[in-house]
């Protein structure tokens, strides 16, 4: 009984504790929870992985800014259902991690605020960002987020198999410069190694082919979205791209019926030449290449998608920090600006994850260039392109287009029919949107 | 009256088919278990590595080392237990009322309750979320528990059970001078224990496994339930580079459920066989 009374007394005393008068900022982020390893760490340079680096960064910010009360919400990937619920409830966090491709969904409805003023307060100029990063956060002429990185698809290459196929020159893989050359290389590779030239995740990975299609349409300056409520896909350019992918499949110049984990395992096991997948796998493959006894040991290279049509281009996305609309005191706004300035100082450390930095200054540093393969992929920050800033629901659109591309490439549907169906389904989605 | 179980041995063919069926049911669970004991790196290179040693406990260590895992486990226990107790109390009282008492609009109200069975949660999620926001109930235990208490199934289930109990018992108790509440509390409620156990188990399991409502109501990690908390702990592309950890999470989250199943398997089997209300 005495124990219970003591507990009640303690609870009452806790309730009577003086209120924290420091300005409070609530940071909501994805990238997982790793408090067990990095809960107390403030040594950013020694942190690894997206979760580890971000957890350490926030710990360090707290330690360096004791006058700010920082609260952190770690949300289940990607966190948008929670954010929508918080916005509906009128209680959003102050800073949120968001994919750049998603920003239009929120900025168009006035749910996040332009951050030009906050960035100015933080001493950050729009010119500080790489072209790809800046394009990802400018919506309707305003900056709606501080970009944090650029993520894109790359050719991850098994150089040992490429050498067996005679596709290495001067220690670098020889990549095709036209669709015809791609087919020729793929056939040459298969004849020499008995293995498929490409490894592709073609099952339950709708975004996989969409990234290829968008990249090569953007490279030809094809207008994919003529306006905010309409996609145009049934075009000669799109047909040509999808037909090439279908031909690779028909001639078994690529792996088939693999999902993303299976395709990843195939690449690590050396079962194919090139795996076109994202920047985020660079660290994992580099580690595998450094491991003795691995089929990938000492034989890994990486490059942006080759220029098969038009101009050099790459369809990219990126992570960014947005500020949901809410009433805030000047002290709270100053605390947000201070956090953004802090993050900007550590953008190099984030680039150790494999993603490209959003700040152009980082790309020119020796430290960045010393990171494995970064000079090979730095071009993404320049040639990276996103969809027009008025395009909303990009994830849902990718899902619909991806399903139809899977059908076309696997041979289940004629190419023209699949593209027309994709166009019809996406336009119906937009027609139903409020 | 239920028939006595047959003591006749099963034919080899039936036994064989049952064994095959049992293996098909168990194989995914065993596979999950094996995957959970493999390192993420080994599985990224080859998911078939699950069937050969070496095995490791590193994924389970990572779960227990998680700074908030025990908190999420406690939250799940509080929410599931609170929801179960609440549903049992409210459903018993409402079921008794609908089955035994005469009051205006009784039939209409019961039809409204039945209609509730046809309304999916997704249809009411937005107004409910707004309502809870206005009441300041998000990020709180009441906010996580209260929506479970409004389920129609428990009321319907208990009403049917009370209806199956002979009214002679009521008359005898009332003749002996028992009040309505005494009749409910001391005579009829003890007879509904099998139904209470069944309803309790189902409510607990549903609450434990619930993901959608805790995901949007609990936005601070202190109030995450285990399902939401474990999901938040996943890195991106967990299915590729964190498969072992993902499977260990699945095994860990299912352990309490497994315990509930084992402890209450008789009630669950009876409920599945549709005999709990007879």
Describe the structure concisely.
Chain A has 434 residues and is of the alpha+beta class.
CATH topology type of chain B: MetI-like fold
Q: How many runs of DSSP E, i.e. beta strands of chain B? A: 0
Overall residue-averaged pLDDT value of chain A: 92
**Morphology call of chain A:** globular
> In percent, how helical is the residue content of chain A?
40-55%
Low-confidence stretches of chain B: none
Architecture (CATH level 2) name of the largest domain in chain A: 3-Layer(aba) Sandwich
**SSE topology string of chain B:** HHHHHHHHHHHHHHHH
Q: State the major sheet of chain A.
A: 6 strands, mixed
Outline the biggest β-sheet of chain B.
none
Task: Report the CATH C-level class of chain B.
Answer: Mainly Alpha
Largest interface: A-B, 42 and 34 residues
Oligomer: heterodimer
**Cα radius of gyration of chain B in angstroms:** 23 Å
N-C termini distance of chain A: 59 Å
CA-atom Rg of chain A in angstroms: 24 Å
Q: What percent of residues of chain A are in strands? A: 5-15%
Features:
heterodimer; A: 434 residues; alpha+beta; D-Maltodextrin-Binding Protein, domain 2; 2 domains; six-stranded mixed β-sheet; B: mainly alpha; MetI-like fold; 16 helices; 0% strand
Please characterize this protein's 3D structure.
The complex is a heterodimer of chains A (434) and B (278). Chain A has 2 domains: 22-148 and 318-385, Periplasmic binding protein-like II (D-Maltodextrin-Binding Protein, domain 2, 3-Layer(aba) Sandwich); 153-316 and 392-432, 3-Layer(aba) Sandwich (D-Maltodextrin-Binding Protein, domain 2). Helix content of chain A is 47%, strand content 14%. Chain A is built from 21 helices and 15 strands. The relative contact order of chain A is 0.17. Chain B is an all-alpha fold and 278 residues long. Helix content of chain B is 71%, strand content 0%. Chain B has helices at 12-36, 40-45, 58-65, 69-100, 106-116, 121-134, 141-145, 152-164, 168-175, 180-191, 193-209, 212-217, 226-233, 238-241, 243-263, 265-272. The N and C termini of chain B lie close together (9 Å). The A-B interface holds A 28, 30-37, 39, 49-51, 71-77, 81-82, 84-86, 88-91, 93, 260-262, 264-265, 268-269, 280-281, 284, 288, 294 and B 44-47, 62, 65-68, 126, 129-130, 132-133, 138, 215-217, 219-221, 228-229, 231-237, 239-241, 243.
């Amino acid at each position: 009984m005495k124990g219970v009374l003591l507990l009640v007394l303690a609870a009452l005393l806790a309730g009577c504790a003086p209120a924290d008068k420091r300005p409070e900022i609530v940071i909501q982020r994805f990238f997982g929870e790793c408090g067990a390893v990095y809960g107390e760490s403030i040594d950013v340079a020694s942190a690894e992985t997206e979760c580890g680096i971000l957890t350490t960064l926030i710990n360090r910010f707290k330690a360096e800014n004791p006058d700010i009360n920082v609260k952190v919400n770690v949300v289940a990937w990607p966190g948008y259902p929670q954010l929508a619920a918080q916005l509906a409830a009128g209680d959003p966090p102050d800073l949120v991690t968001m994919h750049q491709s998603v920003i239009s969904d929120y900025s168009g409805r006035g749910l996040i605020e332009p951050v030009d003023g906050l960035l100015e307060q933080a001493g950050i100029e729009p010119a500080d960002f790489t072209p790809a990063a800046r394009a990802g956060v400018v919506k309707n002429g305003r900056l709606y987020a501080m970009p944090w990185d650029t993520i894109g698809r790359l050719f991850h290459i098994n150089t040992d198999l490429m050498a067996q196929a005679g596709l290495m020159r001067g220690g670098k893989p020889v990549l095709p410069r036209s669709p015809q050359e791609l087919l020729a290389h793929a056939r040459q590779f298969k004849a020499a190694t008995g293995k498929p030239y490409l490894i592709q995740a073609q099952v339950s990975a709708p975004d996989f082919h969409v990234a290829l299609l968008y990249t090569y349409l953007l490279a030809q300056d094809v207008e994919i979205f003529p306006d905010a409520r309409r996609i145009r896909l049934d075009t000669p350019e799109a047909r040509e791209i999808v037909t090439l992918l279908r031909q690779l499949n028909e001639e078994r110049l690529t792996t088939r019926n693999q999902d993303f984990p299976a395709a990843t395992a195939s690449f690590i096991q050396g079962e194919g030449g090139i795996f076109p997948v994202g920047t985020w796998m660079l660290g994992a493959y580099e580690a595998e290449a450094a491991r003795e006894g691995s089929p990938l040991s000492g034989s890994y290279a990486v490059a942006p998608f080759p220029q098969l049509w038009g101009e050099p281009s790459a369809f990219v996305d990126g992570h960014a920090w947005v500020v949901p609309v809410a009433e805030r005191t000047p002290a709270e706004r100053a605390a947000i600006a201070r956090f953004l300035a802090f993050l900007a100082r550590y953008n190099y450390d984030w680039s150790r994850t494999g993603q490209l930095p959003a700040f152009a200054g980082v790309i020119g540093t020796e430290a960045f260039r010393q990171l494995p393969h970064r000079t090979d992929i730095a071009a993404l920050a320049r040639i990276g392109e996103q969809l027009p800033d008025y395009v909303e629901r990009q994830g849902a659109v990718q899902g619909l287009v991806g399903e139809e591309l899977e059908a076309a490439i696997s041979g289940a549907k004629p190419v023209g029919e699949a593209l027309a169906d994709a166009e019809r389904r996406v336009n119906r989605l937009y027609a139903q949107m409020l | 009256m239920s028939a006595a179980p047959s003591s006749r041995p099963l034919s080899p063919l039936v036994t064989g088919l049952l064994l095959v069926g049992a293996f098909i049911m168990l194989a995914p669970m065993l596979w999950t278990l094996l995957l959970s004991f493999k390192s993420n790196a080994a599985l990224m290179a080859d998911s078939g590595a699950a069937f050969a040693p070496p095995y490791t406990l590193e994924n389970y260590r990572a779960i227990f080392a998680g700074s908030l895992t025990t908190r999420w486990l406690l939250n799940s226990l509080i929410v599931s237990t609170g929801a179960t107790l609440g549903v049992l109390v409210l459903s018993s009282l409402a079921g008794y009322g609908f089955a035994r008492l005469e009051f205006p609009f009784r039939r209409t109200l019961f039809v409204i309750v039945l209609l509730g069975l046809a309304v999916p949660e997704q249809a009411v999620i937005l107004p409910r979320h707004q309502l809870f926001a206005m009441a300041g109930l998000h990020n709180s235990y009441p906010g996580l528990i209260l929506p479970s208490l409004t389920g129609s199934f428990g009321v319907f289930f208990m009403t049917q059970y009370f209806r199956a109990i002979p009214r002679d018992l009521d008359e005898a108790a009332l003749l002996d001078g028992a009040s309505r509440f005494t009749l409910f509390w001391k005579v009829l409620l003890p007879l509904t224990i099998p139904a209470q156990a069944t309803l309790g188990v189902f409510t607990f399991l549903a609450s434990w496994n619930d993901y959608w409502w805790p995901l949007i109501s609990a936005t601070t990690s202190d109030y995450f339930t285990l399902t939401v908390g474990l999901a938040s702990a996943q890195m991106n592309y967990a299915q590729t580079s964190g498969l072992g950890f993902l499977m260990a999470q699945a095994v860990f989250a299912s352990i309490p459920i497994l315990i509930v199943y084992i402890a209450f398997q008789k009630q669950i089997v009876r409920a599945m066989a549709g005999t709990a209300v007879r």
